[in-house]
Amino acid sequence: MRTWTLAALLGTVALVLVAWLAFDGRREEHAAVAPPASAEAHESVALDPVRMPEDAPTESPSQEPDAASTSASTTLEAPLVAPSQSRTLLYGFVRPPRGQEQHSGELYASVTDRWGERTVVSVASDGAYSVPDLAAGRWWISAGGSGGRASAVIDLDGSASERRLDLELVPEPRVLIKVVDTAGAPLHEFGLFAVATLEPLGDWCDELRGSWTNPIGVGSFQDSAFASPKPEPPCIGYVRLDVEPPLFVSLLLAQRVLATQRIEPGQSEVTFVVERDDPRLAPTSLVARFVDARTREPLAGMRVMVDCASIATSATTDATGTMRVKRCSPGWIALHAHSANHENGEVRARAEAGVENDLGEIALDEGRVIAGRVADDTGNGAEVLIRYDLIDPASGSSLRTGGHYSTRASSEGVFRISGLSRAVYRVSVDTRDTPWALVARTLDARTRSFDDVRLELVRGTALVLRASDNRWREVRFAIFDADGERLLASRLWTSAPQKLLLAPGTYRFEVSVGSEQSTSRTLLIDREPVELALP
Questions:
Q1: Residue 94's closest CA among 78, 110, 116?
Q2: In whole numbers, what is the pLDDT of the chain averaged over residues?
């Protein structure tokens, strides 16, 4: 009995050894094709809801991506498959652009599923990345860095435990921006920058709000001070383009357009000639005088916030109630007064470049109040962030410039916003990273205050927006509820699916592409997710 047991044990050990050797040989063969990603590339974290560069996929490759690199314009044309319990490890390398031996800077990679859920993963210095436990279905893959961008769309059916996908970065088209004076000397001390658009701009670029490095038009500006490698003067930076020329590049001082040139296919730089004594380059300033609306007495010692197109500053009124701002950026500005006994006197005006903009006398009355409670679907108060925007009564669009104002409800959901002007406001709940649907109320505070506003949070159903073609960069959309309340106005930020949460009901969805007239359609949202291809 003991002899049989020993023989059986030896046989078992032999079988295990043979199996291990065969498995190890397969691993070695596999590793020769795809070196394993480093340990740091195996961690994944949730991606914050910020815009990351993506590229629109176009057509299917001729070979399987498991064994070949996939460029930035690759789509694997396979039908959507039903979710499965099987999980797949996606791994590979983000390759530097063709002809470049190694990466020159930090890399990123992200994956987005059919329902707009995005995960960003770390990428090692050699470009190795991996994403574990991907469910069966369609996935949008994006990678990028200082060397360029790449993206792909893949379909997983759950039949393989591993899937290799290499991405080769494609250098993004860019246009170097050079600025000289009439003598040919570099002109760099005025804080100029450039934007790219498909149509020529007029005198102003209202799309600029906040930082000028944000995506504007069909590109984004990179200042030479932060570029790597740093371009030499007279180059002030470059515009990273989302599309290939032809297009138009405009030189701006904040929202003020100084000049526009057409960029032709193959053109990689543009030179603007600007007179050094151009009056539009002189300091832009503001002056206004604040008085009490009833007594006409000057409001001295009052702090006034000045929200400009690209910067924010403040000033204090003097004994005559006069506020002066010696320097501000040209474009739309909003004044927001801070007074314990008066409305904030929010005034919106366009400041012309190079002149003192006199806004005249601003009379402040007693402030309005908007107060109430936010409750969840169980009736409990919700401690959420509440945003309030000044609204144009005619168009329903926000009158903010680069920023917005908000307050936080208490743990019981109670909020109070005081010192408001006699104006129309849209009050909304910040529902990002929550299960709650978009909720907003437009309140006309021109005639009265509101002290019992009820904002009810409802668990939302996913509305997933995705690009239907390469025009997604020009897509703008707005969503209105059954009462005509505008819940959101935005643009498509990427070619991958983007998720919004809406309460069950009927909505009006308006969409436009570039300068085309907007079209409207009706959306019925129930309990099942809805996918909508734009435009």
A1: 110
A2: 83
